[in-house]
Amino acid sequence: MISEPNIDHSRIPSDDKHERPLGDSNNQRSAQTAPGKLAQYFMTSSSRASLTSKNAELSSKNTAFRAEFNQFLDHTLIELRRAVYVNTSSSFHSRSDELPHHTFIYMHRFNGTHIAGTEQTRVVRKAACLYPPGTSLELLSDVDHDAELYIVEFDLFRVTEKTEARRIYEREHGSPVAGWIQGPFYGIQRIAAQLTELAQPDHQAAPREIKVQLLLTELLCMLWPEDNSSPAAEPEQDDPESWLKSTLQYMQQHYMHEIKLDTLAELAGMHPSYYSQLFKSRMQKNPIEYITHLRMNRAKEMLLTSDLRIRDIAREVGYRDEFYFSRRFRNHAGYAPTAYAKQVHRNIVSLSYPYTDHLMTLGITPCAAQIQGHLPHLPRSLQMPFHAYEPWEQGRQAFLDVNPDLILTKDNAAAKAIEHIGDVAPIITIPWNQTDMFGHLEQIASIVDRTQAAKEWIDRHERKAERARKKIKEQAGSLTVAVGTLTAKGPRMYSHRNFGHVFYRTLQLAAPKRIQAELQGKAPGVGFNWMSFTPGEWDGLEADVLVLATDSMHNRAALMQKLKNDPLWNSHPAVHSGRVHLVDWNAWVVYAPYSINIQLDEALSMLTNKPALL
Prior knowledge:
The chain has 23 helices and 22 strands. 44% of the residues lie in helices and 19% in strands. 33% of the residues are buried. The termini are far apart. It has 614 residues and is an alpha/beta fold.
């Protein structure tokens, strides 16, 4: 339970049966009658207090962070699984579709590409990152650059039962720290090097285990985030809305605990009554309502996507009394928790353009959505980032206006969605890399009660694909096809996912030998997606037909002529024989049902040199 000393102000309880709106005190009524004067008083007094107690506040925050870390360690065991040191002058490539353990990587010397999930980042020299189990991760160093890095894999075990007689631990898949690490790199390198040495099999077991525990604990200490800013170094000190960001972040992280209004007001540097008034003017709801909506939306997500009991869901979102939770849920949602998952939800927002396509395929037009590609009907368009690292520009009001029942997103955008609109509606995350297009369709269909519609689409698509395969066999014979892209990200050759899906899975055409080798032992549609290539180095990438997608179709003729005249490209068999097809990347980038059907028509036409009549 996270709480502050008892002060005579309203609080936001975890399961208090006497919750009431904030702002019903005399101070709040006065603020409504003379907002300018009181606002000046509140902010002036807050500023004076902030200036005189800044060092004490920073010390208090750091102490709180450290206490939180100590509490985490008190109930955790850490087990080293693997530690390796890589130092190579040749190209380094490592890929894991699902990391089996918590994985820390320190790149002491590294120039190349880092891909976590669907987020791609350029790395130059020193960098460090930490990811929990299940993360899709790929590292690819540049050619002609040395690579020196440490990879440390470990498991966390949290205590689930603690008595005088025994301790019971279960493996912890979550991590208190994830993503990019800001340093200190010297200390990190020292620990990583020692762990690598201790991982060798010739060390004695007993002292080794003690040293490993100490080193892993020290490493987590270095990686644990701390509020160690100084007034001169705070990145958001000049941001007039920093008070809102800090308190929203606190509520999103601690909504399942008791949160006092005084705590939020102190974080904001304001008087509690003025903070509540200003919060409502920005968020269209007061802090109690915001916390309640966060809790109820998280509960809805668990009701839709898990088999947890109502009692367990209630406790997960901060209610010890499941019957009180059920009453609050019914008042909020209009249904009892036991009936909620059976309701049909049609007012949906899609934050992912492939999932917008899926919904349209299932006969549901979202009330607002990210859109790209061909769609039969156009919902209200949302300007959403295409990658998790890009800024969120869509205003909050756009979501409040459509009042959605559900928000659908990919896993790489889930964190930002929760940050910006976690109180608006339940956010259902459909993992992008764990399954293929058919898996996405079936998961979404199960959530929106359209399982039969998904089955019918798959059956129709397979019949259409069978007719297309037959036409190609009759008119073009057996073909090998290489499928690549020419975009700002550099030349890539694709496998049987995304751009390659229609050619390799739908039409069942043969891929180049190197692509086939990469696909060995991997499930269809997951695992290997694409590889970089260098024009002229075609060993294992030869094919009868070369299909290239480019985002510069306006100068298509010039690009085709350049390929024919370039000796590096002209050495490819398909270019040499004139069997190259340029397609628009924007029409092929969407990996979803409606777009796949259009891509199938185009593929059939280009491979048979005849209009598609399917």
